[in-house]
């Protein structure tokens, strides 16, 4: 281990793995800025599994919540969450209970049903307890609760020199208030309300004496509210009222989603789970804009890069997500230089956080701009959105923000004027690496030594190339021919210099980055696949990159690794140096499809599908380990991966579109398919309600022996279909 590793390994951006998320089957629900991580019993035991809790606006309002029966933990019968991620349901029963010399309750005599959901900053829970014994039963159940009001960064492993003040727990007949005043002067309370009056209550514990006749049943509710400041809170809704209202909104699709069905039911389950995860992760920001939070538990907040890539992945079947992402990021574009936030005029937001540590300035993330790639990705998405929707009015409104982004690329992002975008952290608490692989050790040389900033990453140059081409496309649509022509010249000049500077015949491929001395980081990393996505590569070099990424040093059988096996710092259990990320694979696959390498795209799609068959609820996690696929064994999970994660969930839609070679052109009202391809596990794919302008189209892609045919099954409006085989 190198000296810099020892210094940084437990730094403020490192997620401390005291317990493994992968080892515990959690039940996760979210509504807007509130999310909860429960265990399969419906409990919160953060002393054992630190990530569990009820979180609201970056703070953990409930850190302990445990049900016991006669002092014992109930036995788990089943635990599930509805397919729309709305309602958690848990079936429990009693263990063998010896109450005294003459009284005992045999296991399986009592059924306890728990159901819970989140709504408007509250966790609603209903208990239904039934006696299945032939005799009347008397027993006690207790709920133990506690609130540590930990900031999400504390939960991640950061330590603080000082914390706020915990107040005295206030106990009433049917409620309990746990108060806390943070160093940010915000007064927070966790309020627990019981519909049934406890027979004994003390700070942190409520006990109920239950008497049930033969087959008798009782119900009661518990509502946990996350309250801020002294402002009066309205009356708490009943469980049934809150459930009906929240269920109604869950049933309403957020946006013009298409419906995707295939011949493979397991793949259909993956798609349905991905749609549900994306709906759950969407939150209202800035007065009603829908924006996908990045992931649970660590990144349940808007991230620029994550939102942009998620929007791009889902653009073809739900462009409303892209519009929300573009609108929010445009309104939060940096306006001035602020070193502690790594902000510069025109720069696109990296992340926005809420919570005590951010509010006090202990961390710079109230609005943080430490991202070199979010700004060109913003321009790329704007161009793709215009192509997909034809929404010229919205893009015209966005054009000043696009221009400011381009000015940032030409000036602040290129301080030495060499034509390449570079990054270097200005903030004392900011990110040292400001690309998607933002671990401190993700950019290094062939001898393993870390690259010194300013750093010019290969994929960022490719994004800038694509951004200029997309900005030129927008400019032409807006009648700005001179600007469009200049941007195309800039793009072509960058392409030539990039190919000369970043290509390495001996790797072979594109070097990872250039360091402060312009010395290339001669490392074989998946970043080179993003160059195909951007279209900056020549066809011959795209072929070489594709072959490299699909050999067994990169492709594990479960997907393309972030770093090739055998490279310095390679570790299949690392965050960025050998692991496998679904969104990374989706971007790479899109690049391969651009150059016609469809069989390889199909292999990546199939790998991701098979990976999902081994995960809880059949969802794709943020990342997983890069170990080689072994016969008759599943993949190795990463211990602290977010799940669900927006760009991971969305990757399946991008991969499917890449296989089909689908491009939607609103101006000509055309669906264009380029060399459509389906892997063997998919005989057919059926897309319905695909919106284009004021019309919709339904179609099927059907795999034949050496071909895929496209059949239109229903069409509303003037929409054409073209196929290039």
UniProtKB/TrEMBL annotation:
Residues 29-222 form the Putative glycogen debranching enzyme N-terminal domain. GO terms for biological process: carbohydrate metabolic process. InterPro entries: 6-hairpin_glycosidase_sf, 6hp_glycosidase-like_sf, GDE_N_bis, MGH1-like_GH. Coiled coil: none annotated. Residues 309-612 form the Mannosylglycerate hydrolase MGH1-like glycoside hydrolase domain. This is Amylo-alpha-1,6-glucosidase. It comes from anaerobic digester metagenome. The lineage of its organism: unclassified sequences, metagenomes, ecological metagenomes.
């Amino acid at each position: 281990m190198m000296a810099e590793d020892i210094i940084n390994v437990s730094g403020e951006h490192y997620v401390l793995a005291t317990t493994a998320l992968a080892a515990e089957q959690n039940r996760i629900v979210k509504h807007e800025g509130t999310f909860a991580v429960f265990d399969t019993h419906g409990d919160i035991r953060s002393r054992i599994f630190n990530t569990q809790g009820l979180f609201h606006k970056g703070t953990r309002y409930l850190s302990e919540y445990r049900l016991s029966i006669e002092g014992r933990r109930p036995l788990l019968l089943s635990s599930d969450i509805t397919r729309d991620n709305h309602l958690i349901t848990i079936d429990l029963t009693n263990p063998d209970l010896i109450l005294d010399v003459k009284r005992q309750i045999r296991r399986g005599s009592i059924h306890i049903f728990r159901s819970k959901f989140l709504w408007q900053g509250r966790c609603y829970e209903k208990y239904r307890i039934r006696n299945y014994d032939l005799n009347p039963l008397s027993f006690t159940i207790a709920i133990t609760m506690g609130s540590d009001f930990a900031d999400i960064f504390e939960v991640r492993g950061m330590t603080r020199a000082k914390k706020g003040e915990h107040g005295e727990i206030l106990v009433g007949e049917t409620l309990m208030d746990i108060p806390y005043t943070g160093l940010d002067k915000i007064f927070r309370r966790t309020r627990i309300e019981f519909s049934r009056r406890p027979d004994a209550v003390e700070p942190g514990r409520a006990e109920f004496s239950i008497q049930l006749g033969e087959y008798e049943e009782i119900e009661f509710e518990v509502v946990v509210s996350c309250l801020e400041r002294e402002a009066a809170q309205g009356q708490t809704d009943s469980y049934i009222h809150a459930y009906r209202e929240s269920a109604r909104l869950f049933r309403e699709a957020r946006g013009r989603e298409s419906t995707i069905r295939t011949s493979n039911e397991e793949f259909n389950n993956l798609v349905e789970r991905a749609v549900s995860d994306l709906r759950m992760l969407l939150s209202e920001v800035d007065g009603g804009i829908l924006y996908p939070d990045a992931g649970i538990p660590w990144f349940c907040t808007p991230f620029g890069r994550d939102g942009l890539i998620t929007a791009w992945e889902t653009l073809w079947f739900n462009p409303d997500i892209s519009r929300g992402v573009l609108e929010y990021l445009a309104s939060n574009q940096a306006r001035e230089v602020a070193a502690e936030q790594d902000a510069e005029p025109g720069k696109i937001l990296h992340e926005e956080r809420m919570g005590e540590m951010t509010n006090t300035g202990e961390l710079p993330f109230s609005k943080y701009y430490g991202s070199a790639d979010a700004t060109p990705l913003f321009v790329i998405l704007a161009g793709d959105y215009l192509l997909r929707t034809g929404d010229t009015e919205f893009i015209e409104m966005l054009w000043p923000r696009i221009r400011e982004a381009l000015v940032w690329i030409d000036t602040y992002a290129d301080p030495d004027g060499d034509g390449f975008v570079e990054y270097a952290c200005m903030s004392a608490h900011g990110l040292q690496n400001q690309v998607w692989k933002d671990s401190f050790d993700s950019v290094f040389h062939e001898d393993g030594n870390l690259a010194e900033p300013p750093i010019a990453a290969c994929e960022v140059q490719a994004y800038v190339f694509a951004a200029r081409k997309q900005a030129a496309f927008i400019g032409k649509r807006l009648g700005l021919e001179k600007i469009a022509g200049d941007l195309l010249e800039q793009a072509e000049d960058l392409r030539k210099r990039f190919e000369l500077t970043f290509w390495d015949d001996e790797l072979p491929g594109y070097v990872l980055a250039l360091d402060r001395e312009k010395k290339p980081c001669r490392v074989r990393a998946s970043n080179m696949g993003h160059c195909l996505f951007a279209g900056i590569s020549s066809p011959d070099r795209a072929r070489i990159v594709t072959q490299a990424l699909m050999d067994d040093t990169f492709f594990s059988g479960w997907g393309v690794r972030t770093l090739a096996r055998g490279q310095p710092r390679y570790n299949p259990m690392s965050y960025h140096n050998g692991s496998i990320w679904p969104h990374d694979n989706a971007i790479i696959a899109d690049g391969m499809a651009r150059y016609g390498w469809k069989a390889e795209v199909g292999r990546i799609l199939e790998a991701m599908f098979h990976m999902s068959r081994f995960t809880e609820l059949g969802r794709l996690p943020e990342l997983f380990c890069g170990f080689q696929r072994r016969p008759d064994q599943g993949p190795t999970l990463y211990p602290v991966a977010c799940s669900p994660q927006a760009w991971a969930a969305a990757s399946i839609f991008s991969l499917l579109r890449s296989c089909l070679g689908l491009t939607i052109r609103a101006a000509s009202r055309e669906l264009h398919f380029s060399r459509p391809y389906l892997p063997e596990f998919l005989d057919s794919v059926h897309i319905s309600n695909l919106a284009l302008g004021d019309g919709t189209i339904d179609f099927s892609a059907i795999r034949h022996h050496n071909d895929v045919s496209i059949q239109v099954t229903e069409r509303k409006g003037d929409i054409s279909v073209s196929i290039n085989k």
